[in-house]
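Reopening this one. Same input as before:
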Amino acid sequence: MSDKLTKIIEELKTLTLLEASELVTEIENVFGVDTSISAAPVAVAATSGAAGDSAEEKTEFDITLIEVPADKKIAILKIVRNFTGLGLKESKEIVDNVPKLLKEGASKEEGESLKKEVEAAGGKLEIK
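Same output, byte for byte:
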């Protein structure tokens, strides 16, 4: 890795969670990208080599919040905040900008439990 990239990485390590969240939002705005799209499924597909691998049951899932009705935002915000452990501002950022990835590599039980909770509150969640 170049010295320039090493310096940037070291700078990023000093950011607070709030500053990192603001940085991601600014990068999305400036460069017109969406960071909520996960590359994990692509990596998994690329690493499965032999035909026998496809018979294995998936044990890790990505949980994505995909829909939040306007009148259900507060209830879903509380669920997201509790699940992620993020602060109010960061959780609101997720709820206001769906679809957003909530967690990568979650267990099936964790995903199903959260899905039931979000759907009971009126939102929609996707588990891949």
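So the earlier flakiness isn't reproducible anymore. For the record, The chain has six helices and three strands.
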